[in-house]
Amino acid sequence: MAHRTRKRLTKTELKKDPINDAIMNSVTYLQDHLKQFIIGAAVLVVLVLIFQSVTQNADRQANDASAQYYLAGQLYDMGMNSFRYGQFEMAIGQLQTARQIASNNFRTYPGRISGKRSAILAAKIGIMLSMESEVIPTLQSFIASDPGADIENSARLHLAIALENRGGENDLVNAQNLYSEILDNTDERSQLAWESYYGLSRILFRSNDYETSRQYLQSALEISRDTTDFMYYQIARLDMVTDNRD
Is residue 215 within 8 Å of 235, Cβ to Cβ? Predict the structure, then answer.
């Protein structure tokens, strides 16, 4: 079979080559819009740099908030240990420093989870230091900011304790309502539930409703039998009151 010679394309046919036309059109388009391409690339580079900066800044803030919360927590633990060993002046100093660090951390990073936890820690220490007049409005504002369900329940608990400690008639009613709200919005076997049942028991005891007080105390004991000395004391008080009534 004879080999067939390939026909050479003419210049006119080459000019009409679609692939060649596409390449030439692309080169022409690039030349006409080179400035726009350069600007677009520059904008893209800037956006990437901004994104990296924001991400790095967010990570740095999260790490700093966590570090400050950890430091405040360590000082709180040190203060509690100092109390146990009878070093009261040292304990108060450590707790005050812990509270200051925690409060500053929340003010600096109110949107970070470590910042929110710092607000709760500061309130907890404030209650220990009998600073209810300062703790109560702070926690009320904190709860109003919608910090999230878990954090909000913890804030409600500390607000209830602060109101209970202040002890006005309206304070006790509000504290009782807060304890009840926590029970409606948390795991019935959780530490928050234990604290809420115990708080309700204390309030009902103060209003001389001893039977209901015992019921709430029993509910707390059903969650955990690991009782504090004060709870043992409360059980003894209830036994004494109800025995005398019999």
Answer: no
What distances in angstroms separate CA 200 from CA 36, 50, 203, one per listed residue? 70, 52, 5
CA gap 32, 140 in Å, rounded: 63
Average pLDDT over residues 65-80: 91
Between 3-12, 67-76, 88-97, 210-219, the lowest mean confidence (pLDDT) is in 3-12
Angle, nearest 10°, between helix axes 191-206 and 149-166? 20
Q: Please answer whether residues 153 and 187 qualify as being in contact, where contact means their C-beta atoms are separated by less than 8 angstroms.
A: no
The mean predicted confidence, pLDDT, of the chain is: 82
Q: Are 179 and 194 in contact (CB under 8 A)?
A: no
Sign of CA dihedral 184, 189, 190, 193: positive
**6/14 Cα distance (integer angstroms):** 15
233 by Cβ neighbours in 10 Å (0-12 / 13-18 / 19+) ranks as exposed
